[in-house]
Amino acid sequence: MWPNEFDYARAGSVDEALSLIGDEGKFLAGGHSLLPVMKLRLAAPEQLVDIGGIDSLRGISADGGLTIGATTTHAEIAASADVQAMCAGLASACGQVGDQAVRNFGTIGGNIAHADPASDPPTVLVACGATIHIQGADGSRSVSAQDFFVDLFETDLEDGELITSLSLPNCSDCQCAYVKFPHPASRYAIVGVAVCLKMDGGTCAQADIAVGGATVKAVKCGGAEAALTGSTLDDAAISAAAEAVKADIGDWLAGDIAYPESYRQQMAGVFLRRAIAAATG
Amino acid sequence: MSTRIFGSGIKRREDPRLITGEARYTDDIKLPGVLHMAVVRSPYAHANIVGIDSSAAEAMDGVVAVYTSEDIGDGLAGLPTAWLIPDSDLKTPEHPALAKGKVRYVGDGVAIVLADDRYRAQDAADAVVVEYEELPAVIDPEEAAAEGAPLIHDDVEGNIAFRWAPFDKEASDAVFEAADVVVSERILQQRLLPTAMEPRAAMAQYNPATQELTLWCTSQNPHIHRFIISAVTGLNENKVRVIAPEVGGGFGSKIPCYPDEALVSWASIKLGVPVKWTETRSENYLITIHGRDHVQHVEMAASNDGKLLGVRATVYAGMGGYLSTAAPGIPTILHGLLYVGPYTIDSIYCESIGVMTNGTPTDAYRGAGRPEATFLLERMVDNVARALDMDPVELRRKNLIPAFEDGYDVAAGLTYDSGDYPAAFEKALDMAGYSDFRQAQADAQAQGRYLGIGVTAYTEMCGLGPSQVAGAVGFQGGLWESATVRVTPTGKVQALIGASPHGQGSETTLAQIISEELGFPVEDIEVVHGDTTETPMGWGTYGSRTTPVTGAALAHASRKLKEKARVLAAHLMEANVDDIEYADGNFSVKGSPDQAQSIQDVALMAHLAWNMPEGMDPGFEESQFYDPPNFVYPFGTHIAIVEVDAETGEIELQRYIAVDDCGPQINPEVVAGQIHGGVVQGAAQALCEGVIYSDDGQLLTGTMQDYCMPKADMFPNFELGETVTPSPHHPIGVKGVGETGTIASTPTVYNAVLDALAPLGVEQLDMPLTSAKVWGAIQAARS
Ligand SMILES: Cc1cc2nc3c(=O)[nH]c(=O)nc-3n(C[C@H](O)[C@H](O)[C@H](O)COP(=O)(O)OP(=O)(O)OC[C@H]3O[C@@H](n4cnc5c(N)ncnc54)[C@H](O)[C@@H]3O)c2cc1C
């Protein structure tokens, strides 16, 4: 619990943050992932650049779609009427992160940059087709959530690049849910399933499904989606989706000694059923 | 003051300072010029130390010194094992404060760094280069005892530290041979992390001028720490002062004297400045003792009509890399002697084998030996019920010892003090609605839902204990307590006790005892503890002994004072002592109630000593040494109702009923608090807690991200009930209640889950019952 020595600077603007970060620097948002690894001496950045004071990075706007600033906290997202209306699954996922203190400090930008495979928000971002907006010394770029998450604790982010915001399509006409099976010790996800369904009468016109927790990164589940699309969400379709999802994540499985991969894979099927029920219930 | 304070659920007096963060723990105490100690710890479970290069560390800013065992030389004796169980061929391998040539578990100390700042100390510790030659490691106690296992201590052949079996094997074998039914099971009592809220800490200040050492440390027994520190440093005991300031829980883990306390003491003596060490949580999980770690091979014999005839077990108890302070006594004296439980079982046999392993040393953890005994008994009773196709409740009912008021001898050689097991049993079953439950269970099963019930009848041995018995079983100390009740001239009370409470609420309950005896309001009574210079000798707070033993000492001291007060009051009122009546802190003369002296008046007059009866000494203070004539045996019945989600393997604890009998309750709120916490801790062993090591001895559950501490939302509201059976040998009849919750709850919850799983064909599972394990077992049974 004794981190190595580091310098600390508080940036007032995105430009200042980018100029301060240097080669061995790390951005500090809520500190709820970064500080624990520093205290365990698993990371030893020489420079911390606190981005918590940069106003332009924080807040939620709804204008056709949703735009969420990188330093917006989980609690703010969970409580936002706009997020609840346009992407209920994200509001639910952010509301299930850690406990209230973690949600009050932890930010969505920090969460996705850290890319813990057992995190909650990434699963919804991947399911719902979010776009991550990134700024670096050489300018800005955008990348889809699906491409952003690369592997265990690994993203598309280059050293020194800053996530500024993320955007999501308006999904107010979808039935959307995130259901989590929390790890009893950490309360991170053993498996988390995000489901977003567009219904046309009794028929499922579009299904977007992603799984996290059981996997090294949030995985979009095409097989399960196909099983539901065009169906009336009857038992046979749901059972087919619950089988398909296990294959969808088969190449990306992750686990720990108490909750091994094989178990998590099976649970993805169970929790997909529960997520569909929650979305349509 | 006319409300009866004894038995009243007044709020815990220690809580405001604890809840508001005002309490002062060891780490809160700041001394000028203090040096911070960081310990270089072994990353290997078993390795030879080839070389240590501390030159880079020594050159770092702020670093005062780096020391290894070579530097300490004979400056510190090895840490003693203080429970030398007899007739067990006990080996006590050397436990140096810093490893000498070889490390024996991950976290074993190799060197210490002293620096002017905690961060710098850690930086320098990281810069000490230690070259190791890794050796094969062994973690499982049964494997460590097997032939060909890596040898951990050269002088502990076969890794067997002791073999204890003081029972009649032939008689036991005969019972098993003749029995109609014998059931058996291999039970794993997994390792547990005590996880006191406050990690350990120690700060030593040696004064070269007076040659006195003051050690502040997280201790459940500062007087024991004093004589061990005196023994290892060579300082006279009267030159050592140990202070346990606020201590944030212990659960047994703050009984032992660890290397760290010895090292800060040695370094402070060596350097003449104060030295401080505070454990991190990660360090706590690595080096502070673990609990349990038994592999048990258990059998129970019964007759076809459901009479329980005998229990026998071979227990491999993992001791870890060294024998911790009280370790040998836990899986033996506090375990094997408890195999009778609340039943009329006439034959018991236990062979307990203490095995050195490459795990963290184990020692007493809440319940200490008794949870392991209660679990195996209750597990086997359910197995017998299954084998006989008998209702487990009916089987228990048939075998419970009938009510007794004053002494009941059992096969283990113990004499239970008092008990009415059937009363507590029936009360708990009534509260649970047992017969209705069986119907509800059948209905649920018809709908594909799996409910289960577990019923545990228990008794346990606490209030440790008669010192003569302590001596006979090799405990290297007494088990009495002493206390002084000191009343100031203005009628305020200081109760000085040798025991050392650390969160139990004893400042409240002990004050209630004094208030009951003497009539002082509780607000006017301070309970002083935790400082060897301020308090009289005592053996510490563990084994649910402070209320029974210290409480008795206080009751007796108070009664002596009351007698003095009565005589003095009579003298002051010019009345005959026999005519003095006492009520609520007032002494009055029979027949003239307006003439009265309050206890405060009497205390003042005793201090002034202007007008004392002939032969009476001045002052108002009495002390009492109290050595209990027997242990106390609280008992009760716990019931859990669970539902298992067969789809995921998740367990929902739906109801928990606990009927406990600890004699008269001094403070029902404090009793309830002890039971709540205990039940949570014990249920967590069944459901989620458990240390996992890799094969090479790395602790894989090194943080709370992986080691599952119980959380409030895992539990329903507990339904508590009580019966009251006073202990016949105790001045106020009370029994201990600090461990009963932990002792009873593990088998209760476990048996409930296995009851729910029975229709699915699952008969046995190792704890903890994680959803993955339960689900896997359901799948395996189905296929
Ligand atoms: C007790 C506890 C429980 C938790 N439980 C959960 C849970 O159940 N589910 C869950 O999903 N999460 C959980 N978390 C994680 C929590 O969600 C993350 O800590 C938090 O979201 C990370 O955000 P932060 O603002 O604290 O990031 P920081 O800790 O400040 O930063 C994390 C990483 O991201 C980088 N970073 C931060 N912001 C940016 C940015 N804008 N651009 C580029 N890089 C950036 C930092 O440099 C660092 O590498 C838990 C955390 C704790 C402490």
Summarize this structure briefly.
The complex is a heterodimer of chains A (281) and B (783). Chain A is an alpha+beta fold.
Q: Strands of the biggest beta sheet of chain B: in what spatial order?
A: 3-5-1-12-9-10-11
Distance N to C terminus of chain A: 45 Å
Assign the CATH architecture of the largest domain in chain A: 2-Layer Sandwich
Using the CA coordinates, give the radius of gyration of chain A.
Answer: 19 Å
Task: Let me know the average pLDDT of chain B.
Answer: 97
> What spatial order of strands do you see in the largest sheet of chain A?
4-5-10-6-7
Biggest interface reads: A-B, 22 and 29 residues
By DSSP, the count of extended strands of chain B is: 28
Task: Kindly provide the radius of gyration of chain B, computed on alpha-carbon positions and rounded to a whole number of angstroms.
Answer: 27 Å
Overall geometry of chain B comes to: globular
**Helical region count of chain B?**
20
- Summed up, the domain count of chain B is 3
Beta strand % of chain A: 25-35%
Just name the CATH architecture of the largest domain in chain B.
2-Layer Sandwich
